[in-house]
Automatic annotation (TrEMBL):
Gene that encodes it: nei
Enzyme Commission number(s) from the entry: 4.2.99.18
Name assigned to this protein: DNA-(apurinic or apyrimidinic site) lyase
Cross-referenced InterPro entries: FPG_cat, FPG_N, H2TH_FPG, Ribosomal_uS13-like_H2TH, Znf_DNA_glyclase/AP_lyase
Domain annotation Formamidopyrimidine-DNA glycosylase catalytic: ranges: 2-103
NCBIfam families recorded: PRK10445.1
GO BP term (any one): base-excision repair
SMART domains: Fapy_DNA_glyco, H2TH
Signal peptide interval: none
Family according to the record: Belongs to the FPG family.
Domain FPG-type: 238-272
Amino acid sequence: MPEGPEIWRAADKISEAIAGKEIEEVFFAFEELKPFEPKLQGLRVDSITPRGKAIVTSFENNLNLYSHNQLYGKWMIGKDGSEPDTNRSLRVAIHTADSSAFLYSASEIEMIEDEEVEAHPYIKKLGPDVVHPETTYDEVLQRYQSSSFKNRKLSTLLLDQGFLSGLGNYLRSEILFCSRVDPQFRARDCSEDQIEALAKHSLELSRRSYKTGGLTTPDDLVKALKEEGASRKQYRHYAYGRAGKPCYKCGKEIQVVETGGRKIYYCETEQKDLN
């Protein structure tokens, strides 16, 4: 499932393609949305806003398209009405005079009015967005220090969009690794330094991934690994997806464990032996 950085980058591409432009034609695959096709024709797209792992496309007539990509959904951009070459199922198409935005394979799509956006069942439960430039370190730190969350295992908590929105499976492993926290810990098990590190890296790694198109490793490490001939898959992350490979900090093998049906990657030396 796409995480916050990927959703923000998708929103940027959609915005570049259709924001501020007049709609020439709209297509909805779902019958319950068909009545909105003529209502949107001729209107302008006001904004494209990431909300956790969802996107809200706002139109000038008080209507908003809510879409959640879930596991398989994907937005693509086309020029001059041409549809991308894909085997995915088309769910939504928004055409302007020179570019189009296509949503494929998503199943959670709704039209809602302005006053319904913040009350949407998904949106109203979201925690602070780790990619949003206005989310502060203090806000995130308070979440980690809150009595509402301190008793939950961090490996589960970091996937909860009500805790911090935009985090997901790869960011979870990377945040715990960089914060030197045992994946089995709860917030209450962490030292003050670890809690502060968790807050810092929750923002830092998410925003780095957004800016770089998916990298959580810093520029100097990426540069060094590239010079050694490493592939993007090898230098993209510190721990995630690197089971059996040497840790970039201590050289010991990265380990993997499955929790809740999803894998989490960690280093025994960096995250367990020190506790």
